[in-house]
Design goal:
This protein has 219 residues and is α+β, with helices and mostly antiparallel strands. It has 2 helices and 12 strands, in the order αββββββββββββα. It has helices spanning 17-28, 196-218; strands spanning 45-49, 67-72, 77-78, 96-106, 110-119, 122-126, 129-134, 141-149, 152-162, 168-174, 182-183, 189-190. Strands 1, 2, 4, 6, 7, 9 and 12 form a 7-stranded antiparallel β-sheet that branches. Strands 3, 5, 8, 10 and 11 form a 5-stranded antiparallel β-sheet that branches. It binds calcium ion (2 copies). One calcium ion (CA) binds next to loops. Residues 39-187 form the PA14 domain. It comes from Aquabacterium soli. This is PEP-CTERM sorting domain-containing protein. It holds the Pfam family PEP-CTERM.
């Protein structure tokens, strides 16, 4: 959940071009980043578990597994295109699961194509709906899917596992109008967006502060 330092007070104080893009997109969605702290556009977090399994519905599940650790993972880009690649997240080589949970910030409304290449299985859910379903043991297999999205934040849930030997995963898209696949970029992947309740509380705080100032001027 580490946030970029210097990115806690508003669009003008972001540290990097990339986080600046996130802040501006959040602002375009009507979300004021200045009141939610660095977590508003923090990079995606990955969580590693000590084994893998499919549940009764055939979905990759971490239920009952041991959490090995977490790391900040700005984008899901862990394969160099060779058939002998080994990712080994957090040094784990065999029999593990990695999950990414956060939000995808769709820059515009439209139909988005998604593609994974993975060894071994992967599933992608957006707003709780299956978009890519390729959960079998495989040697750098391709998964394809699409989703029609509104502009703005959509819950993203990516689950990946490694059985044995080679391992890697990439997560790509074609935005509306794109001709070619590209890695879903860090600029559209965040761990958290402002909670509506936090937004309302911040507005209430601003109103109270403004009221106090007004009363002082009258006094
Ligand atoms: Ca391996
Ligand atoms: Ca493998």
């Amino acid at each position: 959940m580490a946030a970029p330092s210097g990115a806690t007070l508003g669009c003008r104080q972001v540290q990097t071009r990339r986080t600046g893009m996130k802040a501006s997109w959040l602002a375009a969605l009507g979300l004021t980043v200045s009141m939610v702290g660095g977590s508003a556009w923090a990079d995606l977090q990955a969580d590693v578990y000590n084994s893998w399994q499919l549940d009764g519905s055939g979905n990759i599940s971490t239920s009952g597994l041991t959490h090995v650790g977490s790391f900040i993972d700005p984008q899901i880009d862990h394969w160099d295109g060779t058939l002998g690649y080994r990712w080994n997240p957090l040094g784990v080589d065999e029999l593990y699961t990695v999950t990414w949970a956060g939000y995808l910030l769709a820059p515009e409304a439209g139909t988005y194509q998604f593609r994974t290449v993975s060894d071994d299985g992967v599933q992608v859910f957006i707003d709780g709906l299956s978009v890519v379903n390729n959960p079998g043991v495989q040697w750098y297999g391709e998964g394809l899917g699409s989703a029609t999205l509104t502009a703005g934040a959509h819950a993203l849930d990516v689950r990946f596992y490694e059985n044995y030997t080679y391992d890697g995963i990439i997560f790509q898209w074609k935005k509306p109008g794109d001709a070619d696949w590209s890695i879903v970029p860090a600029s559209v992947l965040v761990t958290a967006v402002p909670e509506p309740g936090a937004f309302a509380l911040a507005l209430a705080g601003l109103a109270v502060a403004g009221g106090s100032a007004s009363r002082r001027r009258k006094a």
